[in-house]
Amino acid sequence: MTVDFAPFLPWPYLAALTLAAVALAALGLWRGVRGAWLRTAALAAFCLAISNPSIFQEEREPLSTIVAVVVDRSQSQNNGNRREQTDRALAGLKDRLSRFPQIETRIVEAADSAETEAPSTKLFGALSTALADVPPARVGGAIFITDGQIHDVPAVNQKLGFDAPIHGLITGKPDEFDRRIEIVSAPRFGIVGEQQKMTFRVVDDGAAPGGGAEVTIRLNGNEIATEHAEPGTDVPFSFTVPRGGNNILEFAVNPVAGEVTEVNNRAVHVLDGIRENLRVLLVSGEPHAGERAWRNLLKSDAAVDLVHFTILRPPEKQDGTPINELSLIAFPTRELFVDKISEFDLIIFDRYQHRGVLPILYYDNIAQYVQNGGALLIAAGPEHAGDDSIAATPLSAVLPATPTGVMNEKAFFPRLSEEGKKHPVTRGLEGSSSEPPGWGRWFRTVDVDRPLGQTVMEAADGKPLLVLNRVGKGRVAMLLSDQGWLWARGYEGGGPHVSLYRRTAHWLMQEPALEEEALTARASGRTLEITRQTIEGDPGQATLTYPSGKTDEITLTEREPGLYKAEVKTTETGLFEVANDELTTLVHVGNVDAPEFKAAISTEEKLRPWAEKTKGLVRRLADADGPVDLPSILPVRGAVRVADDERLSLRMTDETVLKGINSLSLFGGLFGLAALLFLISSMWYREGR
Question: CA-to-CA distance for 241 and 674, rounded, in angstroms?
């Protein structure tokens, strides 16, 4: 209750009037005038009436105390019976807190962090968000139901934004133990074919049984080594990068009986394989219009080191010019096809014919190069159908088609075969979807017998145009026309010669993205995108194995000829395995070094410093497999100064909300008028005596 004044005169006038009244009253009292006390009371009442005093009384309603209950719903809570303990503890807390009408409970369910982050348990961040609209004075405390593995616990010298107890109810069992494996150091990039070094470590958390561990190492799903590791000791490991693009290294340590979880018994490292510049040998049998198309394409690729020779002067050409007057470079046949042949990733014979430049034995050497994993491309012209065709050399052992000796001289639109519509080398070539195709015509091809491998492009009357085949560990392609340059020159609108040539070359050099039979998977947030390439027809369902061990059958839908896809949304994070037919692939969802998959044993230590600072309580919900034992609630008025070892202390708020204000004017209305009349009448009456 408060008293306020709203004078009818300005304060200076009121003050002057009051001083005058005080002076008159003092003079009358000093001189002993009869009725001086009544005059003083009347003057005082008159001054008070002019100052207009009022009494104000506020009507207030007490506010509730906010108590946050933060529930850990991260993946680590799936271990053992932690989730069941959590649910029981939450139900019990709701019941106990509901018995206090002045307490308002806020339940905060905190799952793994966002898709773009490494999966982790961020309970303090969830608490801060939940209490963002609550004044600090109204917060009575925070109760965490968790296994204790919290990854955003602030330093104890930081401020939380409120002054109330922090409590922790810990799920899980005492004396848990767990064995896990982690990558200590590893490169993110590596040159294909070169050796890389990395280090891993086996870690035992809690009361582990000890002893050595066997670690199985897989690269892109294939087992490459088994290493022995002592827990807590760094183990070095070396491997060779097998391919360009993503390479997944998986380290799996044998599980230990009784450990908390086997999810963290595997660690994954993703390494990007980088190819050194590809070395390509281009041998042109003679100058011709299409030679520049091949050269320009290969020279424009920064990843290609091109060695190009054109046979300008074959051995049979004898015009009497002295050798020392010729400005030609001698063809280094032995250096290229014997000493350094294995250094080339691709050999291209562009309209080349056997005219004695290469000894016959060297063709056999080239055939062995292909058998051992090399790549050979034959860009054939009329010479391939003649008597000097390289198909009549030992190179024929690796060629997929034998010429009949006839040239098909007929205008035609190159078309994709049925296999070609599915094959990644030719699938979706720009202009292939229309009839006739949206590109220019060619005018001749080399006629061949029925080829081996896949005929992905056809000429007039369904004759083979582009043939792809695997030989031993290597690959061979034959382009049975020399008129691709027409597309390069824009004849009749040109055509996709760059895409065709480049895809063919990269398929020959075993680019994973151009494999006919391939299974790949990638993660986009929490969505898995599965892709299956095939030229054999519907591949059926794919089997998806989750990090938790459960499996699902995934239906693949054809998006393009030979290309099947599926998308799967998942709440789990970790290493997934996809299998279809005999193909398998691995994909990791989330950060490969996620905190959620490191330490998995339940612990009281992370919350204890905050509980001690705020006079809170940290205790386990159950011993071993016993029932959940919840502590009781202790409301405290004022600051919590002493920790209670058995109860959850909550600071009750004194905050109120103003509902209304009642006011009473002391000298307003009839009451004030009556008081003044009474005093004046009393003074007049006294004077009349």
Answer: 106
- 162-191 burial code (b ≥16 CB/10 A, e <16): bebbbbbbbbbbeebbbbbbebeebeeebe
- Measured N-to-C along each axis, helices 497-508 and 291-300 cross at an angle, to the nearest 10 degrees, of 70
- Long-range contacts, 107-115 (Cβ 8 Å, 24+): 107/69, 107/71, 108/68, 108/69, 108/70, 108/71, 109/71, 109/73, 110/70, 110/71, 110/72, 110/73, 110/74, 111/73, 111/74, 112/74, 112/75, 112/573, 112/596, 115/525, 115/526, 115/590
Radius of gyration of the chain (CA): 45
Given a cut of 90, whether residue 236 has pLDDT beyond it is yes
Is a pLDDT exceeding 90 seen at residue 32? no
Please state, for a pLDDT cut of 70, what percent of the chain lies above it: 85
Q: Which helix (H) or strand (E) holds 34?
A: none
Residue 170 has phi, psi (to 5 degrees) of: -95, 125
Copy the structure tokens of residue 70.
């933060």
Q: 134 pLDDT exceeds 80?
A: yes
Structure tokens at 94: 């709701």
Residue closest to 411 by CA, chosen among 430, 434, 436: 436
Q: Tell me the per-residue pLDDT of 624-636, one tens digit each, with 9 for 90 and over.
A: 667 888 999 999 9
User: CA geometry: angle at 577 spanning 575 and 583, to 5°?
Assistant: 150
pLDDT of residue 106 exceeding 50: yes
d(CA 483, CA 488): 9
Mean local confidence (pLDDT), 539-561: 90
d(CA 602, CA 324): 86
Closest CA to 226 of 234, 235, 217, 218: 217
Cα–Cα–Cα angle for 466, 472, 475, rounded to 5 degrees? 30
Q: Provide the pLDDT for residue 664.
A: 64
Per-residue model confidence as pLDDT tens digits over 560-576: 999 999 999 987 777 78
Q: What does the DSSP 8-state code read for residue 555?
A: -
- List all residues 6 or more positions away from 599 whose beta carbon is below 8 Å from its beta carbon: 149, 178, 180, 205
Of 41-55, 147-161, 571-585, 663-677, minimum mean pLDDT range? 663-677
DSSP letters for 360-424: HHHHHHHHHHHHTT-EEEEE--GGGGSTT-GGGSGGGGT-S--EEEEEEEEEE--EE-HHHHHST
d(CA 204, CA 179): 5
Question: Going by C-beta distance under 8 Å and a sequence separation of 6 or more, which residues neighbour residue 684?
Answer: none
Torsion on CA atoms 436, 438, 440, 444, rounded to nearest 10: -50
- In the numeric block, which tokens belong to residue 301? 């690729």
Which letter does DSSP use for residue 168 in this model? E
- Rounded CA-CA distance 212/202 in Å is 9
Enclosing H/E stretch for 125: helix 123-130
Task: Enter the tokens of residue 445.
Answer: 């091809």
Q: For residue 656, which amino acid is it?
A: T
Beta strand residue intervals within 304-364, DSSP E: 304-310, 346-350
Q: How distant is the alpha carbon of residue 427 from its chain centre?
A: 30
**In the chain, count of helices (H) and strands (E)?**
12, 36
Question: How much is the pTM?
Answer: 0.67
> What pLDDT was estimated at residue 287?
83
**Residue partners of 4: CB distance under 8 A and separation at least 6:** 53, 54, 56
Domains and CATH numbers, the chain: 2-61+658-688 (no CATH), 64-175+602-654 (3.40.50), 177-275 (2.60.40.10), 278-513 (3.40.50.880), 518-589 (2.60.40.10)
Contacts for 245 with CB less than 8 Å, ≥ 6 apart = 272, 273, 512, 513
- Beta-carbon contacts of 107 under 8 Å, excluding residues fewer than 6 positions away, are 69, 71, 90, 94
Strand arrangement, sheet containing 213-219: 189-191, 266-274, 245-253, 213-219, 222-229
